[in-house]
């Protein structure tokens, strides 16, 4: 079939739209198979697509139409301006989590200046939080934990990919961290309640690792556990930062206030004005 790049993308976008799927994925697929950046892609709209490129492109579109996320098909996602490998063993990093890193870095500068700090990321998955923090604050000593050995293999490759030295530790949540004290602990734990499954996009539910999505106690188990167990692990001053479900702020704030009565515990909204982060500053 003799089609231009533009015609192929348009046809793919129409198919995706008919199924209520993200049409932007068609552009990402075309840029991937042609190796073009945004500017070159736009400048090449009217060029004929080669048979080989056409076959690769429609192979990706066929996978997309099954609901598989474009990030898993292409094997990568951008986070905080850095490139990360992603596969079915790790969650796809979200823009909301970029905000957790952004505000944690801001608060770290206020609390600690430029001193060397001990930072841990609990439940690291792809390593996105730990690696982005280390890239932005190179003198921090950063460790990251995960229960999944296969997730940690991805995270280690991402550290190499981004040329940072992060120590990865296999274990259950905070347990690998108990041998020392920490200045900052960050976490984006599983926080979706079981009953919310029916509201989820099949693209997420069918393809992303469910152990990284769902938590017991109406999605609150890991927050309660961390709030109860982190106090002996924290230096003074210290910072704890969690990503949260947008309806969980008040309850998680209560957990942290109970364990850290002397701390300032603040709920922070994301760019969409939803409660998305909670920071506990311990003085």
Uncertain segments: none
The value of Rg in angstroms is 21 Å
What's the number of structural domains?
A: 2
Which sequence of strands runs across the widest sheet? 5-4-3-6-7-9-8
CATH architecture call of the largest domain? 3-Layer(aba) Sandwich
Query: Major β-sheet, in short?
Result: 7 strands, mixed
Principal-axes geometry comes out as elongated
Q: What is the average of the pLDDT values?
A: 93
| Relative strand content | 15-25%
Alpha plus pi helix count:
11
Subunit arrangement of the protein:
single chain
CATH 4th-level superfamily of the largest domain: Vaccinia Virus protein VP39
Binding site for substrate: 188-191
Keywords: Methyltransferase, S-adenosyl-L-methionine, Transferase
GO molecular function: methyltransferase activity
Domain Release factor glutamine methyltransferase N-terminal: 9-75
Write the SSE topology.
Blueprint: H1 5-18, H2 24-34, H3 38-43, H4 51-64, H5 70-74, E1 76-79, E2 82-85, H6 95-112, E3 118-122, H7 128-136, E4 141-146, H8 149-161, E5 167-170, E6 182-187, H9 202-205, H10 221-229, E7 234-243, H11 249-259, E8 264-269, E9 275-282
Helix pairs in contact: 1-2, 2-4, 6-7, 10-11
What is this entry, summarized?
With 283 residues, this protein is an alpha/beta fold.
